[in-house]
Design goal:
Four copies of one chain form a homotetramer. By secondary structure, chain A is an alpha+beta fold. The first copy, chain A, is 18% helix and 30% strand. Chain A is globular and about 45 Å long. The mean pLDDT of chain A is 92. The interface between A and B is medium-sized, with 26 and 26 residues. Strand 2 of chain C pairs antiparallel with strand 2 of chain D.
């Protein structure tokens, strides 16, 4: 089931770059992930008005994936729809739809990403001997913003 | 369950780049996918000795994901282990373990990618009116190389 | 002499990405060149309304440089100003100013790129035995668009 | 005058990536700069054995350029030759030759980069109100390593 624009709650538009396209003339699969983590982080920055990179707890990527439905590429911009699949104790799962062109509600996504942020202790005290960092609760400000992205009506079949 | 070096069949080593690391001082999540598709495509190029980009059937990425277990980054090189999870009629599913540092067999991966190639008609005749391309069988030369990556002993718990 | 917004003729705005910033928290020097060649190519595509990648003559990059005056980075967008320094027989030299923030005319650039396109024969006949391609005149449609970017009043001290 | 392998003093080899190649089937011009700053920084890291990112003085890129002589791309590795053009009070200018294939001394470069590092105060005290940082002398350890890259016999015509 390919998600449509109607499946997402918040939106961001990003521009594409000449170098996004690979030898086949369309956006390289790795480049989609630059757009995906930009959409999540830019939304968090803007909606929380906080310097999210330097908070005591920061979100690190535990898992990310993308399903590709239709080719996409330079030069048109890309609209990214955001929806939260789950807001847990220490993690948030986002789904991100990527669209290019047609802006009607029933427009099918070119691709859909799924992005899992886990919050870890960003203070020196939280750094373990092996270099890893302690998992901590999602900060309140992030939780509020992420919860507002939850799809209230669970009737869509996407994802 | 985090996979170890013992879970993979073929290997490639790639160098890391200064620009791979993001503001947190470790490799950005999108950059892992540049390494993942490089490992798959370089292995196919080398093992088939064919110009895989210009064959009548080409593999396009239908889905890709990565789970991140431990931070990794510039300047050390990255060893990528390849294993085929499935060789289907028109698609191949690879799992790619990313390792940095310790080279013992029981070394846990820093990350594991999963990469799905679907083969499509690369000739003009195979291009549909909507720009998409017809799905075709995995070419024989690719099938042979991919099948050699299947994990013969299904006793590992990874993936 | 650092150029200002007043030194450029045409404008494009691009969005920045989380992965643009490196370990020092600002845009990595290589990323500026993704913005620079995007600005040139997107302007040519739009102003000529031609599929510039598949014309009989294509512009390849012979030389590019960037001077960095002030840090720039995610998440704000970047305004790129374009001016043609020279429109030659077979080549065009562009200068591209990169700006972030303040939009007044006397705003100093964060960086300035200089980008040299040389036109080569994109047909099979134009491919030499050693793989290189014959240099050809700038196509008329490109010449018209590039010439419109020439700074008519040579009184600015920039560059 | 195209430089040859004989014009460089120290060497590093890096691997190429599938995503390095753009729609024309060769390495995108911006990607060369990922290789160039990797060669410089990896050499400094290794030759000084110091954590160069967290020293009191860090090198920031003031200017960088690249001249492209011959196409280059995935999948072959790239050899980068390093030579110091100038070691000044607060800055170092490197030239970096990029080679692919033939390893004979008189092999012409595919491209040559020129990379200018200026050293700035990386301590909190060195941060000015406008966000810029005070220029400081090149650290001794860096100066020793960079000076060893100076071309002793100024008889080559390159650069």
């Amino acid at each position: 089931m390919i998600p449509t624009r109607a499946d997402y709650v918040a939106w961001r538009t990003v521009t594409t770059r000449w170098a996004d396209d690979d030898v086949y003339g369309h956006m390289n699969n790795a480049r989609y992930f630059e757009l995906i983590d930009t959409a999540v982080n830019a939304h968090l920055l803007e909606a929380t008005s906080l310097p999210i990179r330097s908070l005591p707890a920061i979100g690190i990527v535990a898992e990310v994936s993308c399903r590709y439905f239709r080719e996409m590429g330079f030069p048109a911009p890309v609209d990214l729809g955001l929806v939260a699949e789950k807001v847990g104790t220490s993690s948030v799962v986002y789904r991100i739809g990527l669209f290019q062109g047609d802006t009607s509600d029933d427009q099918a996504a070119c691709a859909e990403g799924r992005f899992v942020h886990v919050y870890v202790d960003n203070t020196e005290a939280g750094r373990r001997n092996d270099g890893s960092r302690a998992v901590v609760p999602v900060p309140d400000a992030i939780r509020r913003v992420a919860s507002a992205l939850l799809q209230e009506q669970p009737t869509t079949g996407s994802g």
